[in-house]
Amino acid sequence: MLQAMFSAEVGDDVFGEDPSINQLEFMAAEMFGMEAGVFCPSGTMTNQIGIKVHTQPGDEVICEKLSHVYIYEGGGIAFNSGCQVKTIEGDHGRITSDQVKDAINPSDIHKARTSLVSIENTANRGGGSCYLFSDIQSIKEVCLQNNLKLHLDGARLWNALVANKETPRQYGEIFDSISICLSKGLGTPVGSILLGNKDYIRKARRIRKVFGGGMRQAGYLAAAGIFALENNIERLEEDHQHAKLITDALLKKSFVGKVMPVETNIVIFEILYPYTPKSFAEELAKFFIFVMPISTTQVRIVTHLDITPAMISNLIKIIYSI
Hints:
Blueprint: H1 2-6, H2 19-32, E1 36-40, H3 43-54, E2 59-64, H4 68-71, H5 76-81, E3 84-88, H6 97-103, E4 113-120, H7 133-145, E5 149-154, H8 157-164, H9 168-174, E6 177-181, E7 192-196, H10 198-210, H11 219-231, H12 236-250, E8 256-259, E9 266-271, H13 277-285, E10 292-293, E11 298-302, H14 309-321
Parallel strand pairs: 2-3, 2-4, 4-5, 5-6
Antiparallel strand pairs: 1-7, 6-7, 8-9, 9-11, 10-11
């Protein structure tokens, strides 16, 4: 990947003159069967641009209560789009079409106008859980019946595609906009892409500029993304297997309580006495293994392409020794 970056052909992306950026955007859009894409520095930016294009100030966005767009993007829906959020308590980060239908505001001047539904696949705080595609289709039907747009926070969509043996084009046919990350499991240092139709992406480019996301010779970053899309998708299955091995080890320890179902590359588990999430993370850090306390009772472990089978074996031995 680094060699691909060193040899990238670059230009000025603000003027649409960076051939590597153009190639990456076309490549991603083609994969999903969508008309166009725009490259951004982060998934937060692609999500926030995506939401702003679909909405007007005073609108309401429906999402699951632990959605990244709601709890991890700095209040961006309110700050950037002037919208409020109606949250739904889902099942490990997933919501249903019936829940969406019930959350839509009536046509009433006292109520915010519901204009957008945002779902996350895989769901980060749901332990990397995946939607059934049939459930997404049902949500889309509700959106069509109520004139709502449907956005996908697909930061880890690649993991869902590999785990469920689905195709990008299935998702391109359903969603009005898709945010996909090239970092995380695919291993690039920087970057996400927002996908949609040509008119939508034209508007998104203007908002990217307003947000400070216009970049010049960013083709060096795009080259990493091209390499990742060509080489690093199928290998995500290895990360999923690593997560299951870690889970098996954790379940044998008395200080581990409930473990969320592990479908992809995220393990979220409850820590019991004598540890707290903070003290358990500190214990593993002594061995240069870094995990994240995400609540007063839970720890999150994420596997990725820089984690080797030997590292997993070492981690399991350490877990058994604690």
